[in-house]
Amino acid sequence: MKFIGIIPARYQSTRFPGKPLAMIKNKPMIRWVYENVSKVLDQVCVATDDERIMEAVQRFGGKVVRTKATHQSGTDRCAEAALLLKDEFDFDVVVNIQGDEPFIQPEQIELLKNCFNDEDVQIATLVKKIETGEELMNPNRPKVVLDKSWNAMYFSRSAIPFIRGKEEKNWLGSTIFWSHVGMYAFRADVLQRLTRLPQGKLELAESLEQLRWLENGYEIRVAETTIHTLGIDTPEDLEAALKQS
Fold first, then answer.
1. Does residue 40 sit within a domain?
2. CA angle (219, 152, 216) in 5-degree steps
3. Dihedral (CA of 66, 68, 72, 77) sign
4. Contact, 166 vs 116, CB < 8 A?
5. Nearest 10 degrees: CA dihedral of 220, 221, 226, 227?
6. What is the CATH number of the domain that holds 73?
7. How far apart are CA 157 and CA 144, in angstroms?
8. Is the dihedral of CA 120, 117, 150, 44 positive or negative?
9. Within its chain, how far is the Cα of 204 from the centroid?
């Protein structure tokens, strides 16, 4: 089984324009992501529609491809990049690593890779146990419920499952709640099929693209990580990260 890591990166972020080029210590954020992914994957490439990001990646010797500016999601950008790279690289599985995850750990990518030891796995992602009530009720932290085979049954911005007969403040002690960690790996052919699916009612309701895949019958295998990594969505997130690093 051969893997490639593709890092979608765009410049025009609403909350943090130019985010992939923000400096963390002496390196742009995109370089931190690239180098951490390269610790575990031999094939790594940044996919971007922006010349400034392309030049930054080329300066540190990274591989980068130019993709369309019209993509609605990182998944769509990864799919185009995979098509552009298929004659240059040999891979069976595409690992999608967000360009705003500079502290991603190699162990997390290994967990995704291990999911594909099962030949039936089409898509893989990560979850982490929720430990605070604040996280459980935060709509910006999607939750997921799992079946007995560690496949995702549903993702939601709401706290799921609902605990009947208890106040919300006591829910955490009633069952295990899982937070979704937004990293994915796809079999290469499955990735191309996913990008051709129309949006469904569930995705439109929750604004979670993975619900489109579930709604169309695709299974998403899940692995547990115990690592909390800080994604950078705003300049304030970057300031917090610099204080911790």
1. yes
2. 40
3. negative
4. no
5. -50
6. 3.90.550.10
7. 9
8. negative
9. 19
Q: For residue 179, give its domain range.
A: 3-238
29 and 99 in contact (C-beta within 8 Å)?
Answer: yes
Is the residue at 245 inside a domain? Answer: no
Here the tokens at position 194 are 């996913």
Sign of the dihedral through C-alpha 137, 142, 143, 145: positive
Please say whether the dihedral angle defined by the alpha carbons of residues 29, 30, 35 and 37, taken in this order, is positive or negative.
Answer: positive
How many domains does the chain divide into?
Answer: 1
Q: How far apart are alpha carbons 45 and 34 in whole angstroms?
A: 8
For the record, the structure tokens of 8 come out as 């979608």
**Which residue ranges in the chain fall short of pLDDT 50?**
none
Beta bridge partners of 152: 146
- CA dist., res. 142 & res. 155, Å (int): 7
Vertex 107, ends 106 and 113: CA angle to 5°? Answer: 90
Q: What is the distance between the alpha carbons of residues 9 and 18, in angstroms, rounded to a whole number? A: 10
Scored b (16 or more CB within 10 A) or e, 107-119 reads: ebbebbbebbeee
Q: What is the pLDDT of residues 31-52, one digit of tens each?
A: 999 999 999 999 999 999 999 9
Which among 29, 33, 30 is positioned nearest to 48, based on CA atoms?
30
> Do the domain assignments include residue 243?
no
Query: pTM surpassing 0.90?
Result: yes
Quote the pLDDT of residue 28.
93
Q: If you search the block for the tokens 């295990």, which residue do you land on?
A: 176
Task: Please report whether residue 174 resides in a domain.
Answer: yes
